[in-house]
Hints:
The protein is of the alpha/beta class. The chain has helices spanning 34-46, 78-86, 105-118, 133-136, 150-165, 223-232, 243-255, 281-295, 298-309, 343-357, 361-369, 378-390, 409-421, 434-439, 444-447, and strands spanning 9-13, 51-54, 62-63, 66-67, 93-99, 123-128, 173-176, 180-183, 189-194, 199-203, 215-218, 235-238, 268-277, 334-335, 373-376, 396-399, 456-458.
Amino acid sequence: MSAIKKQIHLGAHFPGVNNTTVWQDPESKSQIEFDSFVHLAETAERGLFDFFFLAEGLRLREHRGRIHDLDVVGRPDTLIVLNALASVTTHLGLAGTINTTFNEPFELAKQFATLDHLSGGRAAWNMVTSSDAFTGENFRRGGYLDRADRYVRAREIIDTARELWDSWSPDALVVDRENGVFARREHIAQVRHTGPQFDIDAAFTVPRSPQGHPVLLQAGDSDEGREFGAAKADAIFTVHGTLEAGQAFYSDVKGRLAKYGRERDDLKVLPAATFVLGDTAEDAEERADAIRHQQVGPQTAISFLEQVWGRDLSEYDPDGPLPDEDPTDDVNITRGRVRHADPVQVARDWRERAESKGLSIRELIIEVTTRQQFVGTPAQVAEEIDSYVQNDASDGFILVPHITPAGLDEFVDKVVPILQDRGSFRTEYSGTTLRSHLFGSDSAALNHPDTEREGVRAS
Ligand SMILES: Cc1cc2nc3c(=O)[nH]c(=O)nc-3n(C[C@H](O)[C@H](O)[C@H](O)COP(=O)(O)O)c2cc1C
């Protein structure tokens, strides 16, 4: 009998305000109306995906003092959307990106436990650590967190949330047909947490949820980010897309698990990926090229350049060469977006690349902003995705369609059946919780080494 193949895990990223989204396509619909969310979620569930995924931007980005073109469509609240989706789906995981800098652990623990209850065990939290002062201006404590402390706070928020989730023992809630539903007080612990970030004395309000803890995702690529993911997360969302970069990242983060008493399979690595399908390889390449030109129009190309150069470059021709002079120090030209660490070096690299290949500004920006893309016939795309997973460059992908909300339809109709024929993707959901889709068992949270901790004491 042949060995069971490594299984592919798939997430469906709601495209929203991504740089990859093509809004001028006649097929593009609202990113606010519930129908759009329902469409993508139902498609993902039809395709037996592990989860639906929402990113988060807490402040609309600004470029040259105006709200960024992509952000004018707005960003609705992640958790409210996911709770609404719980009612129209049955198996699909519901993953929300929620910031650990600007929120409080009690509030988040309560919200994710509630989502886990309402969805029957399908909640996931992508713990992001953006800590910039521009975003902070939206909050009471605007800009207070030193960047160096972003993971200090993130670790403590997760530890505190876990103490809260664990404070109701699994048998605290009793459903008695004659006497109704009640909780056994002695099975609910008072949580007293004292740390540098939080000082809490709380009786948690939500009974233990179906997964115990929501599935935890991490996105953040620094050494500290990777360490945080290895210590705390069930999956890492990354942008390391090419086979070689993927393999290097995969082996790096999996190599960090042992010191936390974790196995290599306890953490899934899921890069973002886009895809373009065609009837032939040439047809797909042509479509991909047309899409890239839609994603990076002449104006977008110039504003990307301005983010590096830090000044108004509107006098430049997008179809002409890059500016000769080096960038300025204006870090405020684009706000709410990470600026390149060393703009002068980035500018020099881009100029060199453009000169050696004879690229215009727009062509260069298309090259440097193209993320991992699977381009080809459905069979080619299925083969490539499978090869990344079987060769340990990833455990699957979070797919980012370029059309809202119908961009995933043809992937589910054409690529998923081929992945299933290859024996690399499920043909039905075997469990009901997200943890069971990812790990084949519901009990991983209970076994997680971090669940035994100080700070939870029976009252
Ligand atoms: C693939 C990926 C996706 C991310 N998505 C979001 C997001 O939706 N919202 C957000 O506020 N931050 C997001 N982040 C930012 C990270 O959470 C983190 O704050 C940032 O990368 C800085 O951490 P680092 O220095 O470890 O990379 C994302 C990062 C990565 C790598």
